[in-house]
Amino acid sequence: MILKLARLAAWLCAAALASIAAAQNVPAGAMAPEMTQSGGRSIDQWLTRMHEASRHGSYVGTFVVSSATGGMSSSRIWHVCDGAQQVERVDALTGAPRSTYRHNDRVVTFLPQSGLVLQERRDSLRLFSDLLKNQDAAISEFYAARLVGTERVAGVNAEVLVLEPHDRMRFGYRVWSEKTSGLVVKLQTLDPDGRALEQAAFSDLQLNARVNRDQLIEAMGKTQGYRVERLEPVPTTAIAEGWVLKPTVPGFKLMSCLRRSFSSPDAQGEGALRAVQWILSDGLASVSLFVEPLDRQSPAREVSMVMGATHLLSRRVQDAWLTVLGEVPQQTLQALSLSLERAR
User: What is the CATH architecture of 233-342?
Assistant: First the structure.
């Protein structure tokens, strides 16, 4: 059971790393189009502006994520982008030492305590920017938005936008967008009753900071003394993997299906973990479904966990073990866990 929970934690880590840009790009880009007029801009204009703000200019700051249950983590971020070349370094300031570099879709994570470097390419970095062009997103069916005022965050003036879900199958968001550039400087995830489950915000921020793009790219290649693992997820389909994916929650659509493997430094020598991952999104929230073969470490019953705004559900599905996780209510995970069936 302990080993299996370590594997669950590894899947959670994988999903978190797959959105390492969340500190900057996902709050800015994880919003999709077409809602209402608000503050003189359409929602499409608001969210496109937020997304574009992360693709131009540079900044340096400390980003803090805290949950209503008392959990807290922080990272130091160096970000530079000229529209075509996007380079970033994120250093964990809490927990185990970790440095993650990103150059466009190339991601390199250094884990000093494990002597391990993970290298991969992540199409998910383009997930939400693609949604901004997706006329089928129909976000207005599931969310409304309103401008509620202005506040100062990390020394900058920000406009505050609230995104409210129309049902209890998804969370709401309160977003602080820097008034001049549109950069997201603070984000709260709200439960169905409007209470903040989790907050991510800059505690300090230097806009238009001098960040040397070439030095960051060079640092990505300094892997001497580390064991390097290349984690290249393979695009696949549900049918090819022997599954059928059925719609169970309105608005959540399939964004990608990948066969992937990665090392779990905490898995006590189990080696590489392998699974098929489906990513579903309604344009704001995203959920990952991981399926792996049953083994002797699989628990006998369903497992559920809550970490801030992230919920996790894991259970047996015929001859496989399914783990579903995302920033959605537990009832949504329950419904989405029924979306996979073995192909007849």
Answer: 2-Layer Sandwich (3.30)
Cα distance between residue 80 and residue 60, in whole Å: 9
Specify the CATH superfamily of domain 2-220.
Lipoprotein localisation LolA/LolB/LppX (2.50.20.10)
Which residues, other chains included, contact 93 with Cβ-Cβ below 8 Å and sequence gap of 6+?
62, 73, 74, 75, 76
Helix (H) or strand (E) holding 26: helix 25-29
> What does the pLDDT average to over 75-92?
91
Residue 230 has pLDDT above 60, yes or no: yes
pTM above 0.90, yes or no: no
Q: How confident is the model at residue 328 (pLDDT cuts 50, 70, 90)?
A: very high
Contact 164, 178 (CB under 8 A): no
343: which residues sit within 8 A by CB, 6+ positions away? 238, 239, 242, 243, 244
Q: Is the pLDDT of residue 20 over 60?
A: no
Is the distance from CB of 202 to CB of 208 less than 8 angstroms?
A: no
- Give the position of tokens 């609230």: 162
Domain ranges in the chain? Answer: 2-220, 233-342
Torsion sign (Cα): 183, 188, 190, 195: negative
Looking at residue 139, its pLDDT comes to: 74
User: CA 283, CA 121: separation in Å to the nearest integer?
Assistant: 22
* DSSP states along 176-210: EEETTT--EEEEEEE-TTS-EEEEEEEEEEEET--
Give the pairing type, strands 106-111 and 116-121: antiparallel
H/E element, 130: helix 127-131
C-alpha distances (whole Å) from 230 to each of 14, 97, 108, 268 are: 14, 20, 9, 20
